[in-house]
């Protein structure tokens, strides 16, 4: 059974067709990259998957269970996780308290258990020295890592990452990639990555899905997608595909 | 995070010590301050923790007070017994109103809650058979504990301080719990909160209902202390005062709520020398606080406490 299965997702904003009959299937533990030019509908798809906006038509299943009509928090409790494009944290809570909010998704944990779980997550991400600091003390890169730590504390089975490397420097991107590999190996979670950093996509993803103007135009291994004429013309314009052949 | 328990204990102890030396007049003001503190510690759940701007808090104080007043004077209940439906009923009403009302955000919520308060005043003034209209309800019986009537200002103050202490400890416990963190997460970023598995509507309604429950306790204290309620006691102006108390105290803390409530109870008395001009001074003072002390008195205290050690950066973090 697929971990996440979205079928025939269409999203219409008035006259604009943001997503048209998009299918996305993610197997347990799989690493899928979702790419496409700006405005292709990638973030809209994540919003639909996480329940921030309702699809016009289509169906979403998590571990075979229909979650199309569930509220966002119920989807998170059912095993979905997501980070935002610019990192959204609870500004007036400390770093560890941010992570504790995520850890509180599993019921019946005492306050001490919440704190120790959150601290263990922070240590795994190399952030333990920031545990009691306010969010305002963090660098941009560390803010994004704390957001990732918080979503991991929710113990998702499918993790959706919206441009986690945007705004990070080269060293931070390398660190992020190493951590994503480790997370996947340890937690066996499936990851859907939206990313413009193609080097990162090609090195991490097992499968790449390409969206353009709300339509899925290609899907396959990184090598297959890179050679696909439709993808080349979407990124480089008409003619680019012909020039290569 | 930072607990204001020691400061709350100091404030309550100061009230207790004052109760032995203060004049009858000051004792009465202290009682008013304690009652306002209970209401404002409650408002802190909605405004301070969950970020819900409520300009209808006085309506919930009034609902608690009127329920107790009606049950004691018309149905002959003991005030202790009447306090139970007064408090729980107000909480239920707030929860029922909260579901539709809390779909609104920011200014819209402020306006809607203000409207709620105005509606309450209109009903209290016009449903004469039940509320006595603008004449209000008089001869509300006082409280007594083990045969000792809380008739004098001093014994009522002791009781009020005990109630405030219990409710403050409860508020601090909620602040440091997963429920408190969920409220603050909703305040800081609703979308991120939902994405962290928090039921935003549920948490907002809980914070609103909890704040109304505290308001109703304050209302019951008010009714049994003054023995008289009328619509004027719970007008929207009081809601604005509650919000002002919380902002003056500052920083979404229980200690700040108590400091703000006490200060703004005493200030009008201190400014009495200005006669009717007092409101102008009061307004200017509020303006000055908003401009120069946006984090209120608690923020000022925190800055003073940090000031002697400017070299110590928040580093190496002591885990608590």
From TrEMBL, chain A:
One Pfam family matching this protein: BCA_ABC_TP_C
Organism domain of life: Bacteria
Recorded GO CC terms: plasma membrane
InterPro entries per record: AAA+_ATPase, ABC_AA/LPS_Transport, ABC_transporter-like_ATP-bd, BCA_ABC_TP_C, P-loop_NTPase
The keyword Nucleotide-binding is assigned to this record: yes
Gene Ontology molecular function, alphabetical: ATP binding; ATP hydrolysis activity; L-isoleucine transmembrane transporter activity; L-phenylalanine transmembrane transporter activity; L-valine transmembrane transporter activity
Domain ABC transporter: 4-238
Annotated keywords: ATP-binding, Nucleotide-binding, Transport
Biological process, per Gene Ontology: D-alanine transmembrane transport; L-alanine transport; L-isoleucine import across plasma membrane; L-valine import across plasma membrane
Entry keyword Methyltransferase: no
Protein name: ABC transporter ATP-binding protein
Organism of this sequence: Enterovirga aerilata
TrEMBL record, chain B:
Keywords on record: Cell membrane, Membrane, Transmembrane, Transmembrane helix
CC terms in the record's Gene Ontology section: plasma membrane
Membrane topology annotation: Multi-pass membrane protein
Main location: membrane
Keyword presence, Membrane: yes
Membrane spanning stretches: 32-52, 83-102, 109-128, 156-174, 243-266, 278-301
One Pfam family recorded for the sequence: BPD_transp_2
Location of this chain's protein in the cell: Cell membrane
MF-aspect GO terms: branched-chain amino acid transmembrane transporter activity
PANTHER family: HIGH-AFFINITY BRANCHED-CHAIN AMINO ACID TRANSPORT PROTEIN BRAE, HIGH-AFFINITY BRANCHED-CHAIN AMINO ACID TRANSPORT SYSTEM PERMEASE
Protein name per the record: Branched-chain amino acid ABC transporter permease
């Amino acid at each position: 059974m697929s971990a996440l299965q979205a079928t025939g997702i269409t999203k219409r904003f008035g006259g604009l067709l943001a997503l048209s009959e998009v299918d996305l299937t993610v197997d347990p533990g799989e690493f899928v990259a979702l790419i496409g030019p700006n405005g292709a509908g990638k973030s809209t798809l994540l919003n639909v998957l996480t329940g921030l906006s309702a699809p016009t038509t289509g169906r979403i299943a998590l571990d075979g269970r229909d979650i199309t009509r569930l509220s966002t928090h119920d989807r998170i409790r059912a095993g979905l996780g997501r980070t935002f494009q610019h990192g959204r944290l609870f500004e007036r809570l400390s770093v560890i308290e941010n992570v504790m909010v995520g850890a509180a998704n599993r019921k019946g944990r005492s306050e001490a258990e919440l704190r120790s779980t959150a601290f263990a997550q922070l240590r795994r991400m190399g952030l333990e020295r920031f545990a009691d600091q306010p969010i305002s003390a963090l660098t941009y890169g560390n803010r994004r890592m704390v957001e990732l730590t918080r979503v991991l504390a929710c113990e998702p089975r499918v993790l959706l990452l919206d441009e986690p490397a945007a705004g990070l420097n080269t060293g931070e991107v390398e660190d992020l990639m190493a951590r994503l590999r480790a997370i996947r190996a340890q937690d066996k979670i499936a990851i859907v990555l939206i990313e413009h950093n193609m080097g990162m996509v090609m090195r991490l993803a097992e499968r790449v899905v390409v969206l353009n103007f709300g339509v899925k135009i290609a899907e396959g291994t990184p090598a297959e997608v890179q050679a696909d004429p439709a993808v080349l013309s979407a990124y480089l314009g008409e003619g680019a595909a012909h020039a290569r052949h | 995070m930072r607990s204001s328990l020691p400061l709350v204990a100091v404030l309550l102890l100061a009230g207790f010590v004052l109760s032995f030396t203060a004049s009858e007049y000051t004792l009465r003001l202290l009682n008013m301050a304690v009652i306002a503190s209970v209401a404002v510690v409650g408002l802190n759940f909605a405004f301070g923790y969950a970020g819900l701007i409520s300009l209808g808090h006085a309506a919930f104080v009034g609902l608690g007070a009127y329920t107790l007043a009606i049950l004691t004077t018309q149905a002959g209940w003991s005030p202790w017994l009447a306090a139970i439906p007064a408090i729980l009923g107000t909480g239920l009403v707030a929860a029922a109103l909260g579901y539709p009302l809390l779909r609104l955000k920011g200014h819209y919520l402020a306006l809607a809650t203000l409207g709620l308060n105005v509606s309450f005043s209109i009903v209290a003034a016009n449903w004469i058979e039940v509320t006595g209209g603008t004449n209000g309800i008089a001869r509300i019986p006082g409280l007594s504990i083990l045969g000792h009537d809380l008739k004098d200002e001093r014994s009522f103050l002791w009781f009020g301080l005990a109630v405030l202490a219990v409710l403050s400890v409860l508020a601090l416990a909620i602040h440091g719990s997963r429920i408190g963190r969920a409220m603050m997460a909703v305040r800081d970023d609703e979308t991120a909160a939902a994405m962290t598995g928090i039921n935003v509507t549920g948490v907002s309604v809980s914070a609103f209902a909890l704040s109304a429950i505290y308001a109703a306790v304050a209302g019951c204290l008010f009714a049994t202390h003054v023995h008289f309620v009328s619509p004027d006691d719970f007008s929207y102006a009081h809601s604005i005062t509650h919000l002002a108390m919380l902002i003056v105290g500052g920083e979404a803390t229980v200690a700040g709520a108590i400091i703000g409530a006490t200060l703004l109870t005493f200030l009008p008395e201190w400014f009495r020398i200005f006669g009717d001009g007092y409101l102008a001074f009061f307004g200017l003072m509020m303006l000055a606080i908003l401009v120069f002390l946006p984090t209120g008195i608690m923020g000022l205290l925190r800055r003073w406490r940090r000031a002697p050690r400017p070299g110590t950066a928040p580093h190496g973090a002591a885990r608590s």
